[in-house]
Specification:
668 residues, mainly alpha, Cytochrome p450, 2 domains, four-stranded mixed β-sheet, two-stranded antiparallel sheet, elongated, binds protoporphyrin IX containing FE
Length: 668
């Protein structure tokens, strides 16, 4: 190809690229509920169970819906097709996680698999975990799962009211035994306490938008002492426990391996797997090992609790599952893993538990790393992608009577599009799909089988013998910050009204002066003197407080607002009094006579004298003799109603102009 030919091709390629990029930027975003400028849909985000609101919105805007929150793009996928097309078929660019400065960077959870950015660290850690959780190790893990569940049964028998604590203890002891060969006796065990603590901290920080720093990452660099920087101290405190969870159990096993006393475990296998291990390898191993607990404990506990709830609400389903187990398992023996393939009803029941109350209704958020086009819509790079698994699993067209637990729906299948296996939507998508699915399902199976063969589960009753209806309310892994907007919004609206009215009045006064041919102060100067500065500060503080509360950026801002508001208001009132005093002093001067007050221009704020007296009046009037006081009390308070414009007849002469050069610095 000649030089000209190459140049031509290059030019054509450049034009084509330009057209593609232009076309791209012209494409619309997916439809979604209209929001406000910049804050977008922030005020519409439901505090809890956002997946339910997203499901309703999806009926209006479709299965690929765009939301914007404080400048961040969110795309909610609500159908298997959209989820598969983007998160699975295009997983090369849809497998990152959104950056969460608080939870990720500041608390260190971005080093653990679930929140780790898509890249080398994630790949290396995940590889270790996936190999540890492979079906090859399943029989060994099954033995531990069965033995731990067996230990659990007498605990429920002894104290059925605390069945939830026992479940947490069961999962903790199973997971620690497998990951670190460590036997947990009860929930007071220091290792369990540490794990529970990190889980708690994780949940509190995991709320998208829970901390202002997640919306404005620059805030992570503010100094610790800065007002409102309580989140930094919190992050430091929480980071200590996550670092501890990563290091301490691992170091314990490392020591045991050196001493030759280590029990078989995932971590011991990791440590033994490499000769001459580097600190980097060791770090990867620690992260993989801690991820096992962090990702596996709460999720499994939640599924087990759902099982108990479903059994208490659907006794006929429970009875059928028990009959199936009893018909297979001879008396005196408990079911085990070898019975599983012969328990189709129980298998269907567990599928239904996953569908009915999915542990992660919005899975975990993914992040798209490149601009993309889907169905003619633009998906901007960096957008957070939420897969609404709950919507898919509760779509009546796919699962008729979606809110009922009906295991039969999977047994008598006549239509392959109806009642598909729900598990592909319960354990996540694409390259971030849950690596612990097999382990979780095994834990749930042996738990359900043993509990059903030994106990009847029913609703609790109160001392009067009345049945207590259990609440079927789930908060899910992902929650939006809870905030009561009403107070903030009404305060913001009222402050705005005060400001607008004040400025209209100030503007009118200035216009009036100009029309009289006098050169008054500039508008900005007047605004600085009309008291609106205090209300502007109050308004800014309220808005800041609203944002901080929405993002739970710790309460310092509220405290600041509470402390500063009365000061500002009292300052404003003192200024009013000062203005009046100054005006009174000016009355006797020629200057005051030269520039006085308009009769028809209300120029100051006045309070009902019947209620609080005229706050504008100087304090001296309060202490004046009765006669004087009488005089003051008789002053008409409402300036517009007063024939003299509301100013004391004896204090000022009424001319056509307002005296605007009052000294607002208060002498009182
Ligand atoms: C009923 C129990 C469980 C449920 C419902 C569940 C569900 C999920 C879901 C929805 C995700 C997010 C997938 C995505 O981003 O698309 C996930 C991720 C993950 N799960 Fe599970 N999980 C369960 C148990 C477990 C267990 C027992 C383990 C460990 C042994 C585990 C380890 C993980 C890890 C490490 C990730 C992060 C994967 C990644 O980001 O690459 N999970 N899980």
């Amino acid at each position: 190809m000649t030089g000209y030919g190459a140049l031509l091709v290059l030019c054509l390629a450049a034009v084509a690229l330009y057209r593609i990029l232009r076309h791209r930027s012209q494409l619309p975003l997916p439809p979604g509920p209209p929001g406000l400028p910049y804050i977008g849909n922030a005020l519409q985000m439901p505090a809890d169970q956002s997946w339910k609101a997203f499901t309703q919105w999806a009926q209006v805007y479709g299965d690929v819906m765009h939301l914007s929150v404080m400048g961040r793009d969110f795309v909610v996928l609500s159908s298997p097709e959209a989820v598969s097309d983007l998160l699975e078929k295009r997983s090369a660019i849809y497998s990152d996680r959104p950056v969460m400065p608080m939870l990720g960077e500041m608390m260190g959870y971005n080093q653990l698999i679930p929140l780790s950015p898509y890249g080398a660290h994630h790949r290396d850690c995940r590889k270790l975990l996936v190999s540890g959780l492979s079906p090859r190790n399943e029989p060994e893990y099954n033995m531990v799962q069965a033995a731990k569940t067996l230990e659990y049964l007498p605990k429920i028998l002894a104290d059925s009211k605390r069945f939830r604590s026992h479940i947490r203890c069961l999962v903790a002891s199973t997971v620690f035994q497998i990951t670190h060969g460590y036997g947990v006796a009860n929930l007071d065990d220091p290792m369990t306490q540490l794990a529970e603590q990190t889980n708690d901290d994780f949940s509190r920080a995991a709320t998208p938008g829970a901390f202002l720093v997640d919306a404005f990452p620059i805030l992570q660099y503010v100094p610790d002492w800065f007002p409102g920087a309580g989140f930094k101290r919190k992050a430091k405190e929480w980071r200590k426990s996550s670092d501890k969870l990563r290091n301490e159990p691992y170091e314990m096993v490392e020591q045991q391996v050196i001493e030759g006393t280590a029990s078989p475990s995932f971590t011991a296998d990791l440590i033994r797997s490499k000769e001459g291990i580097t600190p980097e390898d060791q770090y990867i191993q620690k992260c993989a090992s801690a991820s096992f607990y962090v990702a596996g404990a709460d999720t499994t506990v939640s599924a087990m609790e759902s099982f108990f709830l479903a059994m208490s609400l659907y006794p006929e389903v429970q009875k059928k599952a028990q009959e199936e187990i009893d018909s297979l398992v001879e008396p005196g023996r408990l079911p085990n893993f070898s019975d599983r393939s012969k328990l189709p009803y129980l298998d269907a029941l567990l599928k239904e538990i996953h569908r009915w109350n999915p542990v992660a209704p919005l899975a975990l958020p993914h992040r798209v790393t490149e601009n993309d086009i889907y169905r003619g819509y633009r998906i901007p790079a960096g957008a957070t992608i939420l897969a609404n698994s709950w919507a898919i699993l509760h779509d009546p067209a796919r699962y008729p009577s979606p809110f009922d637990v009906i295991p039969e729906r999977y047994l008598s299948k006549t239509n392959e599009h109806l009642n598909p296996d729900p598990r592909p939507f319960e354990f996540g998508y694409g390259r971030r799909v849950c690596p612990g699915q097999l382990f979780a399902e095994d834990s749930l199976f042996i738990f359900a089988a043993m509990v059903l063969s030994t106990f009847n589960i029913s609703k609790a009753s109160n001392p009067d013998g009345k049945t207590i209806e259990p609440e079927v309310e789930y908060t899910g892994v992902i929650r939006w910050a809870t905030v009561s907007m009403v107070n903030f919004v009404s305060t913001i609206v009222s402050l705005s009204i005060v400001l607008i009215l004040t400025w209209i009045k100030t503007y009118a006064i200035r216009k009036h002066i100009s029309s009289m041919g006098q050169s008054g102060k500039s508008l900005s100067n007047l605004c600085a003197r009309d008291g609106s500065i205090y209300f502007v500060i109050l308004l800014i503080m309220t808005i800041f407080n609203l944002v901080a509360t929405t993002y739970q950026a710790i309460g310092d801002v509220t405290v600041l607002e509470l402390a500063v508001s009365p000061i500002l208001i009292s300052r404003f009132l003192l200024d009013l009094r000062g203005a009046d005093t100054a005006r009174r002093n000016h009355v006797d001067t020629d200057e005051a006579l030269a520039s006085t007050v308009s009769e028809d221009t209300p120029e100051s704020l006045c309070f009902s004298s019947a209620v609080v007296g005229n706050l504008e009046a100087p304090l001296t009037s309060f202490f004046a003799d009765d006669e004087d006081q009488q005089e003051h009390e008789e002053l008409p308070c409402d300036l517009t109603d007063s024939p003299s414009g509301g100013l004391a007849e004896n204090s000022i002469k009424h001319e056509d102009t307002v005296h605007l050069d009052v000294d607002y610095t208060c002498e009182a």
